[in-house]
Amino acid sequence: MSGMINIFQPALGERELAAVREVFESNWIGRGHRTESFESDFARHIGVDPANVTSLNSCTEATFLAMRLAGVRAGDEVVLPTVSFVGAANAVAARGAHPVFCDVDPRTLNPTVDMVRAVMTERTRAVVVLHYGGVPGDIVRIAEMCRERGVLLIEDAAIAVDSRVDGQACGTFGDLAVWSFDHGKIVVTVDGGMLHARDAELVAEARKRAYFGLEQTSGYDQALRSRTRWWEFEISSFSRRSVTNDVLASVGRVQLERLPEFMRRRREVARHYDQEFADLGGMWTPPPLPAGQETSHYMYWVQFEDDIRDDVARELYERGIYTTFRYPLLHRVAAYGSRAVLPGAERAAARTLLLPMHQSLTDGDVEKVVTATRDAVRTRRAASRRS
Ligand SMILES: *Cc1c(COP(=O)(O)O)cnc(C)c1O
């Protein structure tokens, strides 16, 4: 909405436009060498070989594909924290498998290894975890535990594009991982996703499945190898079309180059909020990062001692500041048929609010958020204590 301070916002500008113009002028807008370059740039960014990643048209599509690559079948169980993205649970259910929800820590909204373990059974085929707010969480121990039990780990690294543990990128701890470049993320291609697999053969399989299940990559490639009748098909699976294209990839390449600059601003904003809210009674800022962890600062979440979250959200909205809560609890969604009792997540979902966090926030915006939040918390808290 115009005039509102957004919670998330893309930072797209002249450099991205120039990159798009160049693609238009080249007359090759489909999947081509720019897409390949974006994939290698991204591989370098997370410290893996380009053969271990492939781009897709969305993160959700990448998640659906990951379930297939993980061999998730009807009747299998897949464990996810109840604070997960709805598309991840859909990807499980769409295979005829059962999403099994685990609890999260009420302060970090990430699951601990014990919370994941507590709901695993002999039918658990895979575990899917995201990195709440961009914070890696217990990923190292969860990966270790999954490896020991022979269960596949899929990282939903959609919002962890620059998150690390001891220098290792989130998305490289599990067997498979997915990232999002949609309009609300940090690195934006307008729409798009990336998939990483530890096993490069799975990526080769993913590439075929992302393009109708065709064995050959393109007619041009076939012709180059001087085969005749390069227009003929060989099909390895009855798949859809989930590839991205050079227009979007060219935007992604510029965005990846700008990521360090984005991250500098996000860190500044987070530090500023931390300082300004340190002495505000009744409201907590995100817990300090464990040693060795780096976050993408995708979300800045605050939590209230009293039951004032919804009132604070409304008051901020009236003052031109948009806030929200992510991700609404999935064990509460009737369609998944869960009867889990998850008190940590319930507590978090009732008290947590996300404040505006993006690299285009001006100092003035940040001041406005700080002042309005302090005012709202003080008045609402006083009112709730009186009643
Ligand atoms: C945005 C998001 C997705 C989905 O990404 P799309 O590219 O929009 O499909 C998946 N997981 C998480 C945690 C997200 O925030």
Automatic annotation (TrEMBL):
Pfam families: DegT_DnrJ_EryC1 (PF01041). InterPro entries: DegT/StrS_aminotransferase, PyrdxlP-dep_Trfase, PyrdxlP-dep_Trfase_major, PyrdxlP-dep_Trfase_small. Its cofactor is pyridoxal 5'-phosphate. Keywords: Pyridoxal phosphate. The keyword Repeat does not apply. Belongs to the DegT/DnrJ/EryC1 family. This is dTDP-4-amino-4,6-dideoxygalactose transaminase. It comes from Actinoalloteichus caeruleus DSM 43889.
